[in-house]
# Entry
Amino acid sequence: MLRKNRLTAPTLCIFFNMRHMAVLTSVLLSSSMLAATAATATQPPQCKSLERLVDECQSGTQPSSETRDSCDRIEAGFVALCGPLGTIGVSASAAGAVLDLLRQDYQVVPIGQTAAGAFPSHLAIGPADLNDSNLIALLKQAYRVGKTVAIVGATEDQASRFHRLLRPGAGANCQPAKGQARIPLYGLQRSRYRFPPQNSSYCLLNLDPQAPAADRRWLRERFGSTPPQPAAGNVASTDDSTQFLTDLATATHCSIKSNTTPNGQTVTGAAGADLYVYTMRDFTDTGCGGCTHQGADYYLVQDNLTYTKSVSYVNQFLVLAPGLGEAPAPNEFFPITSNFVSLEFTDPATATSYESSYSNSLSETADGSVGLDADGPNVTAGGSVTTDHSTTYSVPPTTILNQSNILTSLPQWTFTPQSLPLNADFQVNPTWTWFIPRDAYPKGGTGNDELEFENNARLADNGVFEGEVDQICLVPVPFSAWTVNSPSLSSLTPASTASNGGVFTITGQYLYPGSVVSVLIGGVAVPLSTNVDLVDDTTIEVTVPGGLGLPAGTYQVQVNTQFNNETRFSNTLSLTLAN
# Structure
């Protein structure tokens, strides 16, 4: 099991306007000369180097010496010299200032042009398009291959419907700002090829007229080639030195940005939150001494917040996670009994005053019974995975107060930087872990249930709140069951499809993505790498390959999984193939 108080220390940094990057400087100096010929020639040679830097900025892997300001200039230089960062297809009903910001970095075209050119591209629709089956089909196709898809100017109900169309059974992670009826932009992105696989949601609550560059940057990153994600750190393992602890998990990423405007008054600042939650299920641990049933879950949380103050009297920033509960259906919330929940988090464990820098060298270990690895739920296999963290953080003069309450399982920190200039970004990165035994879930913690994480990012004046950004992040429980059973198929949708390129969806239980070894149609295996999309442990999407060699007719579909070298076979369902 995870060892207590061994994750990562909360970290913080501040970015100022730093003007040092030789590669970018030389590129920008020559861009005016090259721009005139760029339309008639291939991309300038500098674009290749710039493209690499853009990818690093958008993936969150840029070296610490490359500040956010540097990334802004890198991406702006790339657009000026090499052209747009990508293409966004927009429906006729989508409109608003958000699209004006996106046009500064992306080629925005009518959505119909995306299918004829470099489709699939990122897509944005308006609320009126939720009833257009053709547009929704394009939306699902782009989402399936990892593009960002978004709805512009939606009400809360429309955003929820948009979310359910792409993630059935899941709730939306976005609500309008106080006093507002609509959400400027709500986007979703699914990253199949990240480890762990990650579902991201992007919620832009309002636009900041005082800092349009910050909104533009936020949008640019969310429509990037890959969603931003923190580096996993260095890893060592007794069995496999290439595994990350987070390889055992699935990841949920909830991103939100908003101005802080208390009582409709002057904007006091802005806050952006990127909450990453890695979920794992321990199938063998008893959970706690008073638990009568085996099983427990770990929720590893990384909270990356960026604060920007707009007025001088704001001098403190707070991070508070006030609530934890199970939300299995719309408009339902069941608090998790705090007596059963353990809160595990790391330094600083007490109030910490300013130091010019501090080092963090920590580790944590999960045994082989936790979560999901390449063979599926690791139920009985031995081995352990250990992550190491060894980093030195440079911080501005800051007092860090850890006010987290172990008894009530409430994480909370207050950061008081000294002499922070106006409009300078201040980042805090607290990290913690919730340990939740099976008996703590009101509904059992299985099936399609979700855990509701509430997160507050607050700006304060000596403890007096001057504005806050509230974030709700719905995180699916790790698995659909507390025991590992043979795969069970309940339906095929549709039950009839084309024999060459037809698409159908398998719905069932225990279809753990890491454990599926074959999907069979009439006893013939469908290529997993190219024609099977292992969505989650209840859903598989299949594209029938033309070379399968099956004539028109009705065939039995079966899914096989493998745990600890033991193959398990599902029941079969009938699928009709037509020419």
In short: The chain has a mean pLDDT of 74. Residues 86-227+241-343+419-476 form one domain. DSSP finds nine helices and 34 strands in the chain. The radius of gyration is 24 Å.
